[in-house]
């Protein structure tokens, strides 16, 4: 156990970088606390409504605040099967703090989780550069800061969603995988199972990446019947079975209760409509007094006010429809409207999505519709105001592609790219979440600086210092550019 926790010890050469990262994270999360401290520390009877009403940061959900305040299986059980259970101990801590302080401390507990995960994501990524790729300190520092400077890495580190947790788990898996590949040590079955449950339990599709790690580390031994059965088939089957049990136990009863309540509401509404129709049919035979009695005394003034309200509502609806036309569609056509395939998208432009969202918003925030929710008021595609945003995007893309070329003989780089490729197939190929693909940035964007690490390592010696300088300059620019926009949004 002591050896397990030793991995979290900050080494001497990491201290200055760790201090800088911690300070930046503290500033960013401090902005979130300052913005949401008053509404979110209240103890209420409806936490969900309180958090949903006030929280709006891109497409991220404040479900973690809700779970920490009033525990429930609030996450989608087939996408995040164990995440609610991971939050149970923090929830109990919050319950104790509520009794001690009289305030809901979910915001502060979430910030601690976010800062821990983001901080150690940077530490383990730095160790990948130093220990796995074997880069120098300056190059490792520059690449780590570049990763931190990406727009939706910074944003993921300050929002109460699962992405920052997944980022830590995936980078840790890559770090451990790289160390084991260098030392020619296999993943043991229990290790594969543990990493799979932690990662897939947080976000189910990321569990496949742990199988990729086991395949690249163990090689042909991955396909041994014992390993396939115990490290792949059994944990995957058990987790899927748990998802089904979790749905039937926690989600299905609530869905049935909501459907029953909705059915009762519809029945009551239908009954009122039938009653009104009957009253209208016999209105000629009723006196004015009886009509008022049946309709609960609707006066002429009330009728006039109702007509006025209807006119206002129609005007608002027309305005919404016009705004919707300007924003464009929220999501393209799916492959099929049944099951998981209903989340796909085959009609949205891939070119625009890659330029403006995948390699755009993920790295450089758009100042227009800044951190807007695409399901509310942000268009699916937003363009930058200035040409130099696209120039920076182009330079980063070229460095990434050059890194793939220079590191093409590295088995470890192909492991990293297998992680990256899975997300590209899901989001760009099939279109899962392509309408807001940037919020999934934390799942894949570490591939960019890792590939650039191979470029710096394998490029001619006379060019390496220039490459490090370019990376450092881009990192500094992005920290200032994205940091200024984030500070402006929250303040």
* Total number of beta strands: 0
So what's the overall shape? globular
* Distance N to C terminus: 43 Å
The largest sheet, given as strand count, sense and whether it forms a barrel, is:
none
Rounded to an integer, what's the Rg over CA atoms? 27 Å
Structural class: mainly alpha
Unreliable stretches, pLDDT < 50, 5 or more residues? none
What is the helical fraction, as a range of percent? 55-70%
Oligomer category: single chain
Rounded mean pLDDT is 87
Written as H for each helix and E for each strand, in order along the chain, the element string is: HHHHHHHHHHHHHHHHHHHH
Number of helices: 20
Strand content: under 5%
Molecular structure report:
The structure is a single chain. By secondary structure, the chain is mainly α. The chain is 70% helix and 0% strand. The chain has helices at 2-6, 15-40, 47-54, 63-69, 83-86, 88-101, 106-132, 137-149, 151-156, 163-183, 189-202, 207-218, 225-281, 288-294, 300-327, 350-361, 387-406, 411-429, 447-458, 461-490. The longest helix has 57 residues, at 225-281. It is globular, with a radius of gyration of 27 Å. The two termini are 43 Å apart. The model has no long low-confidence stretch (mean pLDDT 87).
